[in-house]
Amino acid sequence: MKRLIPTLKGDGVSIEFIMLIRTVLAATKEIAFRVSQGELSGILGSTLDENIQGETQKKLDVLSNQLIKDMLLADDQVRAIASEEEDNVVVGTQGAPYIVAFDPLDGSSNIDINGQIGTIFTIYPARDDVPADSPLQFQQPGKNQLCAGYVLYGPATMLVMTTGGPTRCYTLDLTHGGFLLTQEELSVPTDTKEFAINMANSRFWADETTQYVNDLIQGEEGPLGKRYNMRWNAAMVGDIHRVLTRGGIFMYPNDNRDPKKPAKLRLLYEANPMAMLIENAGGKAYANKQRILDIMPDELHQRVPVQMGSANEVETCISYYD
Ligand code: AFP
């Protein structure tokens, strides 16, 4: 089985960029080890703090953020980082070529139930026209991403990543501690019968979303002519991994629970990296009518509605929106 570095070299990725990817992955391997120890590693449970999003931080959120942050800031390829758990941009090495954004621990509500969780990351070129500590460093559309990926801490620890070419899947081999290529090229089936959405929010949805989901659950007799099944992991990494593996549509639409926060998912370190992985596997990724990778961000922790996955299902879904 092919290892990560020869695979990346074969894809024409430069040595310096491979070294940066290795830095990110070194931190995720450390997280994977702690996760596999569960209660024994003392990482379960909450802290007394909230992050910039107003969410209570879990111990593993804080630990994962610190591990990734420390390793990236010690890497002289990194000019700045942005994280779900950091209010502002954190400066690395002045003049370095890359900036990195990450969600250190996606799916925090699954930590204490031994469910699927993961780390999502993305790498962009640094901007020379703005200071290293400026949020403008990250005000680039997702199509500028040089690399996008996630590490899923599930029964097996898996890395799904693209450096601009195919979306590839690797599995962490615990015997030698490296990621081995286990699927050369993920391909999202164009049509499916599976959707993922948090139905508990249905009373807060816009009419378009309600109409589409009503049509999904009508079965063979309904306008979509198919009997759909539903899955929801409460961790985007888990849901997107399923979609990348066997197809489906994943949605976190706008809702009116909190007028100040119509959308839940963050553009920079959730929607954009997942959109690149999905598109490079032949799927589609939209925020209602707009292709996610074309969105020019206004702010660091910007939120967007998300509809992504199997191309035909996403096309049908977004046809419901104005
Ligand atoms: P946390 O990492 O804060 O638990 O949030 C996970 C997430 O951002 C995304 O991974 C899930 O798809 C979504 O939130 C789940 O949201 P609900 O809890 O509203 O279903």
Automatic annotation (TrEMBL):
GO terms for biological process: fructose 1,6-bisphosphate metabolic process; fructose 6-phosphate metabolic process; fructose metabolic process; gluconeogenesis; sucrose biosynthetic process. Residues 188-321 form the Fructose-1-6-bisphosphatase class 1 C-terminal domain. It catalyses: beta-D-fructose 1,6-bisphosphate + H2O = beta-D-fructose 6-phosphate + phosphate. It is an enzyme of class 3 (hydrolase). It comes from Saccharobesus litoralis. The gene is fbp. Binds 2 magnesium ions per subunit. Its cofactor is Mg(2+). NCBIfam families: PRK09293.1-3. InterPro entries: FBPase_C_dom, FBPase_class-1, FBPase_N, FBPtase, Fructose_bisphosphatase_AS. Belongs to the FBPase class 1 family. It is found in: Cytoplasm. Residues 16-184 form the Fructose-1-6-bisphosphatase class I N-terminal domain. This is Fructose-1,6-bisphosphatase class 1. Mg(2+) 2 binds at residues 103, 106, 270. Mg(2+) 1 binds at residues 84, 103, 105. Its EC number is 3.1.3.11. It comes from the Bacteria. Homotetramer. The lineage of its organism: Bacteria, Pseudomonadati, Pseudomonadota, Gammaproteobacteria, Alteromonadales. Keywords: Carbohydrate metabolism, Cytoplasm, Hydrolase, Magnesium, Metal-binding. Pathway: Carbohydrate biosynthesis; Calvin cycle. GO terms for cellular component: cytosol. Pfam families: FBPase, FBPase_C. Substrate binds at residues 106-109, 198, 264. GO terms for molecular function: fructose 1,6-bisphosphate 1-phosphatase activity; magnesium ion binding.
